């Protein structure tokens, strides 16, 4: 395995940790800044919106410079954002730091996957890409719980400082280990934009926003919900996040295995199951054991939707999937932002810390409704159009494109 892949995996580990660790630290951050839990939830919303904005913009900018230099710039941006979060004297500056760090998120995974694929022989490209994204998976099982533990015992600022150090290690690793690569050819933006004329692409992205939003409605406020409602100690939140990470891992395996075989049935099952579990979570959150089981299931069902949702976008985008794929990564984070905001609203309205679970159930059910609508529209589409689209997609596949897997998310890699 090229050592450059290790540098990319370290960067992915840091990004995954900083994205999700905030959930376990919301009570401490809110207390330090003297803000409410719903207000602190804006740290999740702000990060997610930063990804939504940064993914397409910085990916487009990345076509103007070499990939190695762009990766270094992205990791530098990530370090600056986390350092600002670690030292921010006010909540506003803390939020700014979160947004700055988030801008690097989508582009790092998109450009990094291309670099990973080019580091190895053609028959090992998928394995190289998966190795890089292992950092993201490990972050949710190891980095997030450890970051939560450090934040609760030493102080949340230390957590962000450590993440910034990880970013520096990733930056130095990229500088030292990733070989120089030529500047990629300019993207054909006009062609890529044609994908958004297809209503199926827009429906798939809407399913992404609502379905993934269902997960984050509950998980954003998992710390106060488990301590104030279920009766867990602050320290137990660390292990509950490990459980959620394990659910994510299992869900990704499930989604990745069956997305190619039965995409729409998988979406029906996972989105429907997610809606039911989230609705029940409102009730079982009062019981420690049942609450833990619900957290595992939310992670598994929620992240089992990721591969089929991303693949649905790629399938429907036909011959112009690059921008659509990048925007769909942003759509996952738009769902995070929407859910965190709505969850904060219902808590602020006095409905309690379990109320976001109802919000999540409604969002997941809405995504399920869109899935049925999308399938109905597809059945009415003339077969000739479907075959033509498939031919276009196939042509793109045969021209040396690869597939990147980000925790089950498949993104196109053009060489």
UniProtKB/TrEMBL annotation:
It is a multi-pass membrane protein. CDD domains: MFS_NepI_like (cd17324). Residues 388-409 have a biased composition (Low complexity). Residues 4-379 form the Major facilitator superfamily (MFS) profile domain. It is found in: Cell membrane. It comes from Streptomyces litmocidini. The keyword Transmembrane helix applies. The lineage of its organism: Bacteria, Bacillati, Actinomycetota, Actinomycetes, Kitasatosporales. This is MFS transporter. The keyword Nuclease does not apply. Keywords: Cell membrane, Membrane, Transmembrane, Transmembrane helix. The chain crosses the membrane at residues 38-58, 70-93, 99-121, 128-148, 160-180, 201-224, 236-254, 266-283, 289-309, 330-352, 358-377. It comes from the Bacteria. Residues 387-415 are annotated as: Disordered. Its main location: membrane. InterPro entries: MFS, MFS_dom, MFS_Efflux_Transporters, MFS_trans_sf.
């Amino acid at each position: 395995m090229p050592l450059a892949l290790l540098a990319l995996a370290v960067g992915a580990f840091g990004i995954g940790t900083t994205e999700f660790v905030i959930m376990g630290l919301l009570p401490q951050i809110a207390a330090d800044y003297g803000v409410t839990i719903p207000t602190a939830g804006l740290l999740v919303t702000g990060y997610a919106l930063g990804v939504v904005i940064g993914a397409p913009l910085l990916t487009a900018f990345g076509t103007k410079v070499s990939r190695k230099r762009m990766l270094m710039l992205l990791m530098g941006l990530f370090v600056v954002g986390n350092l600002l979060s670690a030292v921010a004297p006010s909540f506003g500056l803390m939020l700014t730091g979160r947004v700055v760090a988030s801008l690097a998120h989508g582009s790092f995974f998109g450009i990094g996957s291309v670099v990973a694929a080019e580091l190895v022989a053609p028959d090992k490209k998928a394995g190289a890409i998966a190795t890089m994204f292992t950092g993201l998976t490990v972050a949710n099982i190891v980095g997030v719980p450890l970051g939560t533990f450090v934040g609760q015992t030493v102080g949340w600022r230390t957590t962000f400082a450590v993440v910034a150090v990880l970013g520096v290690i990733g930056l130095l690793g990229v500088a030292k280990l990733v070989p120089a690569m030529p500047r990629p050819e300019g993207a054909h933006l006009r062609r890529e934009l044609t994908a958004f004329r297809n209503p199926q692409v827009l429906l798939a992205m809407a399913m992404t926003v609502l379905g993934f939003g269902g997960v984050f409605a509950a998980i954003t406020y998992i710390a106060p919900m488990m301590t104030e409602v279920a009766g867990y100690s602050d320290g137990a939140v660390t292990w509950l996040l490990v459980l959620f990470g394990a659910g994510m891992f299992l869900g990704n395996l499930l989604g990745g295995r069956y997305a190619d075989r039965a995409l729409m049935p998988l979406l029906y099952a996972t989105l429907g199951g997610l809606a039911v579990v989230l609705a029940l979570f409102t009730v079982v959150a009062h019981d420690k054991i049942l609450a833990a089981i619900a957290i595992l299931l939310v992670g598994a069902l929620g992240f089992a939707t990721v591969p089929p949702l991303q693949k649905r976008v790629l399938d429907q985008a036909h011959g112009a999937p690059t921008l659509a794929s990048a925007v769909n990564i942003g759509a996952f984070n738009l769902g995070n932002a929407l859910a965190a905001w709505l969850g904060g609203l219902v808590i602020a309205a006095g409905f309690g810390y379990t109320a976001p679970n109802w919000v999540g159930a409604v969002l997941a059910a809405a995504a399920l409704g869109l899935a049925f609508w999308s399938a109905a529209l597809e059945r009415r589409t003339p077969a000739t159009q479907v075959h033509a689209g498939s031919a276009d997609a196939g042509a793109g596949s045969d021209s040396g494109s690869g597939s990147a897997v980000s925790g089950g998310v498949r993104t196109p890699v053009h060489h």
